[in-house]
């Protein structure tokens, strides 16, 4: 993994090269041992303008003629690339697959509409209503506040917790600590969300090597196993205010794509939510650290705030969330995030995470969410 | 003299009947509402897509709201200097969960409160013409 930050003098391929070489070195293999590449297609950088980022990496490392799969799934692309890489190995097609994601982000908030036409619901939301990306999170968050009684202080405490653990992560971009007062004093971006409660954008790259059991035994070392890997898209009737309108749902509105992916990965792993020692989830905003654990059955609805305030979401708690510091401390390098999570899970399961280590972690979940109703989830075990 | 008005986009809303309406469709097989118009039903449980024009509004309940505190990037439109505005999600009595703005003069923002569809300006053209979109007002 390359550290996350802003790197004006480096290309996305430069960032990926660092991440790939570290992953190969960690696995104890060379570039010529890689049988295939599953890459997240960048939304914003490299890829010849066509999202062909895997091809950029192969050309840079040396064109050996191996197959390259470039995966597009918005911000879930890193997770989707992992799923494809895993499927190729698990299905016996290849012994060694490199998964890679890298991104150099443009300044400012992520533009959620890539086209300037009436047929795109994201374009209509922005043109007719004036709803940029973060307002979607703000609306979900305000709804939770009304339903669960979540306070502004509790929202701020999620950000405080993130930086309390993220400050120990040498790969994180934002390592300063904040108080609840400082978080609440930061600019109100989309009421009720403040600047420090929303993840910024960053440059970064991450890579991972997936290999067959036989190859793993040959190579030796401490390697986590892929216990489950799943990809999903949103259900028609989940009630989230996507596009201009949907149907009023019978039940509670939720991110169905994430819930389906998480349930799928857990089922493959033969595990229940309570078996997980830690979770890396996509915290684009503090809201998700409260909503997702409930939507996935990690805790009861309405329980998240109490667990947060009792310190249970810290690495030493009962339900550790984002021990890496998460998106809030890294900033989102969109399509690289799913692979960055794989690195964190691996270090945690090897007990190599230092001051942010979840003690004795043996089973861990990671999840991404992407534009277009995309999601991925994976479970690694020691 | 009345101010000139132009819709932010054609075909999404009307107040010809004297009442603001959102212009969409509904599938007569499964009753799913669509806004904007859809040429087919996307409900995976629905076997026979029979979509007809329908219109929605005006009564509903505020599901959530937010205040847009910074100037949004294009393609959003607003008057200079930028003034924060309220965004909302409303559950219309018709069964549609729809996004919109709250009317600028509406101070009452409370989840669960009753609201009504209205049309109003989101910005102005250089010549003073009002650019109209749909919005909601407390009742």
Q: Roughly what fraction of the amino acids of chain A lie in strands?
A: 15-25%
Radius of gyration of chain B, in Å, reads 16 Å
The CATH architecture category of chain A equals 3-Layer(aba) Sandwich
Task: Specify the helix fraction band of chain A.
Answer: 25-40%
* Tertiary shape of chain A: globular
Q: What shape does the CA trace of chain B take?
A: globular
Mean pLDDT of chain B: 94
Domain count of chain B: 2
Rg over CA atoms of chain A: 20 Å
- What is the mean predicted local confidence, pLDDT of chain A? 95
Structural class of chain A: alpha/beta
Which structural traits does this protein have?
heterodimer; A: about 375 residues; alpha/beta; Peroxisomal Thiolase, Chain A, domain 1; five-stranded mixed beta sheet; four-stranded mixed beta sheet; 13 helices; about 35% helix; B: about 140 residues; mainly beta; OB fold (Dihydrolipoamide Acetyltransferase, E2P); 2 domains; five-stranded mixed barrel; 10 strands; globular
Could you explain the architecture of this structure?
Chain A is α/β, with parallel strands linked by helices and 382 residues long. Helix content of chain A is 37%, strand content 18%. Chain A has one domain (2-107, 197-381): 3-Layer(aba) Sandwich (Peroxisomal Thiolase, Chain A, domain 1), CATH 3.40.47.10. Chain A has helices spanning 12-27, 53-61, 77-90, 121-129, 133-148, 152-166, 180-185, 213-219, 256-269, 286-295, 304-309, 326-330, 337-349, and strands at residues 2-5, 36-40, 68-71, 96-103, 188-191, 193-194, 203-211, 225-233, 245-247, 278-280, 363-370, 374-381. A 5-stranded mixed β-sheet of chain A has the order 1-7-4-2-3, with helices on both faces. Chain A is globular, with a radius of gyration of 20 Å. The two termini of chain A are 20 Å apart. The model of chain A has no long low-confidence stretch (mean pLDDT 95). Chain B has 139 residues and is mainly β. Chain B has 2 domains: 5-12 and 57-138, OB fold (Dihydrolipoamide Acetyltransferase, E2P); 21-56. Helix content of chain B is 0%, strand content 47%. In chain B, the strands form 2 sheets. Chain B has a 5-stranded mixed barrel with strand order 6-7-8-10-9. The two termini of chain B are 28 Å apart. Chains A and B meet through helix 4, helix 5, strand 5 and strand 9 of A and strand 4, strand 6, strand 7 and strand 8 of B. Strand 9 (245-247) of chain A pairs antiparallel with strand 8 of chain B.
């Amino acid at each position: 993994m390359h550290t996350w930050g802003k790197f004006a003098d480096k290309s996305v391929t430069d960032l990926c090269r660092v991440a790939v070489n570290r992953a190969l070195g960690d696995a104890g293999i060379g570039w010529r041992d890689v049988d295939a590449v599953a890459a997240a297609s960048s939304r914003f950088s490299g890829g010849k303008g066509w999202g062909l980022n895997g091809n950029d990496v192969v050309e840079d490392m040396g064109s050996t003629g191996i197959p390259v799969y470039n995966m597009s799934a918005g911000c879930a692309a890193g997770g989707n690339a992992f799923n494809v890489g895993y499927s190729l190995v698990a299905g016996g097609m290849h012994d060694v697959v490199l998964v890679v994601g890298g991104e150099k982000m443009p300044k400012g908030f992520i533009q959620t509409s890539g086209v300037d036409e009436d047929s795109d619901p994201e374009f209509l939301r922005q043109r007719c209503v004036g709803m940029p990306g973060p307002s979607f999170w703000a609306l979900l968050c305000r709804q939770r506040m009304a339903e669960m009684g979540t306070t502004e202080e509790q929202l701020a405490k999620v950000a405080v917790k993130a930086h309390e653990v993220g400050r120990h992560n040498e790969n994180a971009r934002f390592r300063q600590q904040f108080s609840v007062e400082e978080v609440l004093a930061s600019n109100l971006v989309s009421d009720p969300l403040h600047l420090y409660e929303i993840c910024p954008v960053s440059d970064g790259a991450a890579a991972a090597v997936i290999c067959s059991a036989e190859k793993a035994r040959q190579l030796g070392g401490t390697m986590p196993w892929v216990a489950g890997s799943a990809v999903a898209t949103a259900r028609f009737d989940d009630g989230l205010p996507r596009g201009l309108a949907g149907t009023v749902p019978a039940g509670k509105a939720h991110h169905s794509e994430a819930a389906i992916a998480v349930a799928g990965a857990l089922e493959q792993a033969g595990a229940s939510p309570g078996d997980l020692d830690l979770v890396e989830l996509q915290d684009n905003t503090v809201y998700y650290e409260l909503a997702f654990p409930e939507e996935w059955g990690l805790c009861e609805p309405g329980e998240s705030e109490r667990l947060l305030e009792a310190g249970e979401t810290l690495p030493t708690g009962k339900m550790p969330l984002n021990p890496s510091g998460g998106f809030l401390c890294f900033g989102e390098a969109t399509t690289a995030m799913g692979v960055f999570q794989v690195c964190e899970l691996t270090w945690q399961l090897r007990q190599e995470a230092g001051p942010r280590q979840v003690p004795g972690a043996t089973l861990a979940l990671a999840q991404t969410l992407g534009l277009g109703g995309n999601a991925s989830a994976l479970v690694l075990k020691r | 003299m009345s101010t000139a008005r132009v819709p932010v986009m054609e075909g999404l809303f009307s107040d010809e009947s004297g009442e603001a309406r959102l212009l969409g469709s509904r599938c007569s097989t499964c009753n799913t509402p669509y806004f904007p118009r859809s040429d087919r039903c996307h409900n995976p449980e629905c076997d026979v897509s029979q979509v007809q024009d329908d219109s929605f509004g005006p009564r509903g309940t505020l599901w959530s709201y937010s205040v847009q505190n910074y100037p949004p990037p294009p393609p959003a439109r607003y008057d200079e200097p930028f003034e924060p505005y309220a965004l909302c999600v409303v559950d219309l009595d018709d069964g549609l969960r729809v996004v919109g703005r709250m009317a600028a003069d509406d101070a009452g923002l409370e989840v669960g409160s009753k609201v009504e569809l209205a049309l109003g300006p989101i910005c102005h053209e250089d010549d003073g013409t009002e650019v109209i979109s749909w919005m909601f007002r407390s009742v």
